[in-house]
From TrEMBL:
<dbReference type="Pfam" id="PF01023">
    <property type="entry name" value="S_100"/>
</dbReference>
<dbReference type="GO" id="GO:0005509">
    <property type="term" value="F:calcium ion binding"/>
</dbReference>
<keyword id="KW-0479">Metal-binding</keyword>
<dbReference type="GO" id="GO:0005615">
    <property type="term" value="C:extracellular space"/>
</dbReference>
<dbReference type="GO" id="GO:0048306">
    <property type="term" value="F:calcium-dependent protein binding"/>
</dbReference>
<protein>
    <recommendedName>
        <fullName>EF-hand domain-containing protein</fullName>
    </recommendedName>
</protein>
<dbReference type="InterPro" id="IPR011992">
    <property type="entry name" value="EF-hand-dom_pair"/>
</dbReference>
<dbReference type="GO" id="GO:0046914">
    <property type="term" value="F:transition metal ion binding"/>
</dbReference>
<keyword id="KW-0677">Repeat</keyword>
<dbReference type="InterPro" id="IPR013787">
    <property type="entry name" value="S100_Ca-bd_sub"/>
</dbReference>
<keyword id="KW-0106">Calcium</keyword>
<feature type="domain" description="EF-hand">
    <location>
        <begin position="50"/>
        <end position="85"/>
    </location>
</feature>
<dbReference type="InterPro" id="IPR001751">
    <property type="entry name" value="S100/CaBP7/8-like_CS"/>
</dbReference>
<dbReference type="GO" id="GO:0048471">
    <property type="term" value="C:perinuclear region of cytoplasm"/>
</dbReference>
<dbReference type="InterPro" id="IPR002048">
    <property type="entry name" value="EF_hand_dom"/>
</dbReference>
<dbReference type="InterPro" id="IPR034325">
    <property type="entry name" value="S-100_dom"/>
</dbReference>
Length: 95
């Protein structure tokens, strides 16, 4: 697989893994999203920006359908925010 395909497939697998832990499959609950933030973010900068303790604020922001669950489309928005934060962080680090 190419780099891009590897990255995309990791994201899809990650969503499937965490959204399948409890309740509806294919939907992340607040607890599942929190667990993902806790386990899958290791850099202090990203952990600060996407603080697991403030998961409900993030969920509200992502949850366009207002059902308190994060579907794949809404998860993609999270990935966008994360990618932008990471990009900015890298740029700052090189200064
Ligand atoms: Ca939703």
């Amino acid at each position: 697989m190419s780099k891009l395909e590897t990255a995309v497939s990791s994201l899809v697998e990650l969503f499937k893994e965490y959204s399948g832990k409890e309740g509806k499959k294919g939907q992340l609950s607040s607890a599942e999203l929190k667990e993902m933030l806790e386990k899958e973010l290791s850099s202090p900068e990203l952990k600060e920006k996407f603080n697991p303790e403030e998961v409900d604020t993030l969920l509200k922001d992502l949850d366009k359908g207002k059902d308190n669950l994060i579907n794949f489309r809404e998860f993609c928005r999270f990935v966008t925010l994360l990618a932008r934060a990471y990009y900015k962080m890298e740029k700052e680090a090189k200064k």
